[in-house]
Amino acid sequence: MKRIRYFVLFLIAFGVLLSPLMLDATNLAPAPIDSAGVQAQPLQQNGITYLSGGIGVDEARAIEQSQGYNLHMMFSIGVDNKFIPDVNVTVQNASGQTVLTLTEVGPLVYVQLPPGKYTIRATRNGEERHDRADVGSGAARNLVFHWNGGE
After folding, report:
1. First-to-final CA distance of the chain
2. pLDDT 10s digit of each residue in the chain, 151 long?
3. Which of 65, 73, 72 has the alpha carbon at shortest distance from 33?
4. CA distance to 61, 63, 118, per residue, from 34 (Å)
5. DSSP assignment string, 68-114
6. Which residues span the domain enclosing 50?
């Protein structure tokens, strides 16, 4: 009898702990985006489509919900990971040919690249960060470029 009582108390305690995690499914739907705050539009360079922006919350959410971009880049600075919009980006294919050169973009840049291996260089105030990405038809490759220090 004592074991049953402890088991019931355990179930009640477990239920109380989980109750904040049980959300109504309607609360999981993304909030509507105010299109007046969205200025990011698809652009093209050398036949490659890209999006750049994300200064405001609505614009950032609009870019994050965009489909068809297989390389996602985010640029931030400092301990607070503050978004920054003034980054120069160069994307080179596996043979070293530059396929995309962007000036003062960000804080989010989404690119639609042909499948392949790429080297991405992000420069801000003369300080360069680089990474490699193997993009294909699967899930998008996410890159985060972060600079320490102040603005």
Report:
1. 66
2. 544 444 433 434 434 333 343 333 344 445 554 444 455 689 999 999 999 998 888 888 889 999 999 999 999 999 999 999 999 999 999 999 999 999 999 999 999 999 999 999 999 999 999 999 999 878 999 999 999 976 5
3. 65
4. 10, 13, 34
5. S-SEEEEEEETTTTEE---EEEEEEETTS-EEEEEEEE-SEEEEE--
6. 42-147
Structure pTM?
Answer: 0.74
Neighbours of 1 (CB within 10 A): 5
Domain membership of residue 29 (yes or no) is no
* In a domain? residue 86: yes
**Which pair of structure tokens corresponds to residue 86?**
């003034």
- How many CA atoms within 13 Å lie on the side-chain side of 37? 13
3-class DSSP state of 119: strand
Residue 94 inside a domain? The answer is yes
Structural domains in the chain (count):
1
CATH of the domain at 140: 2.60.40.10
Rounded Cα distance between 141 and 70, Å, is 6
